[in-house]
């Protein structure tokens, strides 16, 4: 290992060669500056790298005659240069990039990296960026290191012996810091509330790059026994560990250890990973290897995107402009798909451009960069809810995704879906939120060791309702639907789930079966013309009676009715339906008159529900 001088650069960066620049927060800025100062002695150098944090002086106009950037994943500065045609972009899975270096598909003359000072045995640490840096150091003919005492010393596959370093430059420098954009905080927090409903205790998390994913996962602090196997280790992950949500005790691979390939965030984060034996930094050929990812159960891959079309295709760039790249999104999405009980999730705000453009779109925009096919993503989460895509047909997908779009774009999306024949002509009701619920729109409940969800019915539930109807006995159909009802067409089911939830109300209790939900009970009310009362009705699956579902639905409906200013709910109940009569009486329902037309008239004062 020799001290670096200006005279060394012509021997390091040969004319026409390719030089790798270290990534993330460990971009060796002092080495880059040293190389740029020797520009007049160099010629036609390609600078290869993934995303770096901090300045990117190598793309300045005055450098273009000598240096040409080639990014495998883009950040600020580089993306503008790529879109201006003065820098190159190479699409690549991050799991594959190390092999491009090691197999000579993308040969490297030199690797410029940042390391910690060597220990007593002569080993330096790659610190916060192991990712593809590890492979670059093995593949390059010459390794040049910036020795930075401020770089955290991390454990895992992070070590580089001084004998493997050809030139060094000692230069102390603070690492660049990063934090989520506070402008997106409210949206990200709401997305986090929905994620918290999907993620189970004992899951293993991967958190993608970006403001939304990093901030949203902080909603998981009340979870327990979570594990981490991810590319990016951020302050959001650190906070989960410090809150006791993460202990890695349920992982099948690297149990007891948090696994990551790089970290970027605050100084507190860098101090946290310094000499932390519980965190293992591994190269992307390991962290992003689909087979390795899938060895853990309940892998939850949380990534973001620029837009999603109504059939479930996912884009990382839009309108013909490159934004970031493929990165590890597909690596972890496929890993989660193959993991037992895994959840591949795309989490994104419903709008862009200050609310002027919907991210849920009829078609991907011209020139969009596809990073997820229709078969890859199981859930799309926005601040408006969760769209379930796995096992859903195109009609159901369109309705699910419209449901989580910003309300002001839903009518337009619904019209486009009808024009494209993605949905039936009769599906015209624009989904509206039940604003009185507040927070997330659904509630997870446990009944006899099974998971259930209480939520409003959605237009996409038409098949669910149809299956629910045909699961009933003839007696239930006679009592709940009337003597004349013998079939439930898709159109009729659509009418029953396509409720104007701002006026009337329809709630369901669904049994969770993986990503699908099976309808087990329905409660609804229809607002009367006086707008002070509503008729209420229930249907409960025969196998789920006496489990408290009717009481659960009635309490929620009364609460919403109370917030809407209603005075009472009323129902007509058969005299022999003792359980239903007792339910209404439990909530202060009173009989009005005697039995009329074979039915008991019950009135329930809403004001007493609170």
What is the approximate shape? elongated
Bin the helical content.
25-40%
Distance between the termini: 74 Å
Radius of gyration: 29 Å
Number of strands: 35
Going by helix content, strand content and strand pairing, the class is alpha/beta
Protein described:
This protein starts with a strand and ends in a 5-residue tail after the last strand. The chain has 19 helices and 35 strands. It has an eight-stranded parallel sheet with strand order 1-11-8-6-2-3-4-5, with helices on both faces. The protein has an eight-stranded mixed sheet with strand order 28-29-30-31-32-33-35-34, with helices on both faces. It has a six-stranded mixed sheet with strand order 13-12-18-21-26-27, sandwiched between helices. Helix 13 packs antiparallel against helix 14 and helix 15 packs across helix 17. The protein is 26% helix and 24% strand. The model has no long low-confidence stretch (mean pLDDT 94). By secondary structure, it is α/β, with parallel strands linked by helices. The radius of gyration is 29 Å and the shape is elongated.
List the helices and strands and how they pair.
Elements: E1 2-3, H1 9-12, E2 18-21, H2 29-37, E3 45-49, E4 67-71, H3 78-83, E5 88-89, H4 97-102, E6 110-115, E7 123-125, H5 133-139, E8 142-147, E9 155-156, E10 159-161, E11 167-170, H6 185-198, E12 204-207, H7 211-216, E13 227-228, E14 232-233, H8 235-242, E15 258-260, E16 262-263, H9 267-273, E17 279-281, H10 284-287, H11 290-293, E18 299-303, E19 307-309, E20 314-317, H12 329-338, E21 343-347, E22 351-352, E23 357-358, E24 360-361, E25 369-372, E26 379-382, E27 385-388, H13 394-403, H14 407-419, E28 443-447, E29 450-456, H15 462-470, H16 474-481, H17 490-497, E30 505-513, E31 516-527, E32 533-540, H18 549-563, E33 568-573, H19 578-586, E34 590-591, E35 600-605
Parallel strand pairs: 1-11, 2-3, 2-6, 3-4, 4-5, 6-8, 8-11, 9-17, 12-13, 12-18, 14-16, 15-17, 18-21, 19-24, 21-26, 32-33
Antiparallel strand pairs: 7-10, 19-20, 20-25, 22-23, 26-27, 28-29, 29-30, 30-31, 31-32, 33-35, 34-35
Helix pairs in contact: 13-14, 15-17
């Amino acid at each position: 290992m020799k001290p670096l001088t200006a005279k060394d650069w012509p021997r390091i960066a040969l004319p026409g060669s390719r030089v790798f620049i270290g990534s993330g927060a460990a971009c060796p800025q002092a080495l880059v500056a040293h190389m740029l100062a020797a520009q007049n002695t160099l010629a036609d150098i390609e600078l290869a790298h993934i995303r770096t944090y901090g300045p990117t002086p190598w793309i300045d106009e005055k450098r273009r005659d000598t240096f040409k950037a080639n990014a495998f994943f883009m950040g600020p500065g580089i993306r503008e240069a790529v879109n201006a045609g003065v820098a190159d972009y190479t699409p690549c899975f991050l799991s594959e990039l190390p092999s491009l270096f090691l197999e000579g598909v993308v040969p490297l003359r030199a690797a410029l990296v940042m390391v910690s000072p060597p220990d007593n045995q002569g080993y330096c640490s790659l610190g916060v960026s192991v990712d593809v840096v590890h492979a670059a150091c093995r593949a390059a003919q010459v390794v040049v290191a910036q020795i930075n005492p401020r770089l955290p010393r991390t454990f895992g596959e992070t070590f580089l012996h001084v004998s493997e370093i050809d030139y060094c430059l000692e230069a102390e420098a603070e690492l660049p810091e990063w934090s989520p954009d506070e402008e997106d905080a409210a949206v990200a927090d709401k997305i986090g509330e929905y994620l918290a409903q999907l993620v189970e205790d004992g899951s293993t998390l991967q958190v993608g790059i970006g403001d939304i994913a990093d901030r949203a996962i902080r909603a998981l602090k009340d979870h327990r026994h979570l594990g981490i196997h991810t590319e990016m280790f951020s302050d959001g992950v650190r906070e989960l560990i410090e809150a006791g949500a993460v202990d890695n005790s349920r992982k099948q691979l690297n149990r007891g250890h948090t696994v990551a390939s790089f970290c970027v965030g605050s100084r507190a984060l860098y101090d946290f990973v310094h000499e932390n034996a519980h965190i293992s930094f591994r190269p992307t050929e390991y962290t992003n290897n689909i087979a390795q990812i899938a060895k853990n159960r309940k892998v939850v891959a949380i990534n973001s995107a620029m837009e999603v079309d109504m059939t479930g295709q996912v884009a990382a760039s839009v309108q013909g402009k490159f934004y970031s790249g493929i990165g590890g999104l597909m690596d972890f999405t496929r890993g989660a798909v193959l993991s037992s009980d895994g959840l591949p999730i795309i989490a994104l705000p419903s709008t862009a451009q200050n609310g002027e453009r919907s991210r849920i779109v009829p078609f991907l925009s011209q020139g969009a960069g596809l990073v997820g096919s229709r078969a890859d993503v199981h859930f799309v989460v926005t601040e408006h809810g969760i769209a379930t895509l796995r096992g859903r047909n195109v009609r159901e997908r369109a309705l699910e995704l419209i449901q989580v779009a910003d309300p002001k774009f839903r009518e337009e999306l619904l019209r486009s879906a009808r024009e494209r024949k993605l949905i039936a002509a009769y599906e015209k009701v624009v989904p509206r939120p039940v604003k009185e619920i507040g927070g997330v729109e659904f509630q997870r409940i446990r009944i006899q060791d099974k998971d259930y969800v209480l939520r409003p019915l959605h237009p996409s539930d038409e098949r669910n309702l149809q299956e629910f109807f045909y699961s009933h006995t003839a007696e239930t159909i006679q009592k709940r639907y009337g003597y004349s009802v013998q079939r439930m067409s898709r159109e009729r089911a659509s009418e029953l789930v396509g409720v104007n939830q701002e006026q009337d109300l329809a709630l369901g209790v669904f049994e969770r079966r993986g990503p699908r939900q099976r309808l087990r009970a329905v409660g609804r009310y229809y607002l009367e013309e006086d707008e002070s009362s509503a008729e209420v009705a229930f249907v409960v699956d025969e196998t789920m009676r006496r489990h408290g579902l009717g009481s659960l639905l009635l309490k929620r409906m009364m609460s919403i009715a109370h917030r809407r200013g209603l005075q009472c709910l009323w129902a007509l109940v058969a005299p022999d339906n003792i359980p239903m009569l007792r339910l209404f009486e439990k909530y202060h329902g009173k009989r009005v008159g005697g039995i009329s037309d074979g039915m008991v008239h019950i009135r329930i004062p809403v004001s007493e529900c609170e």
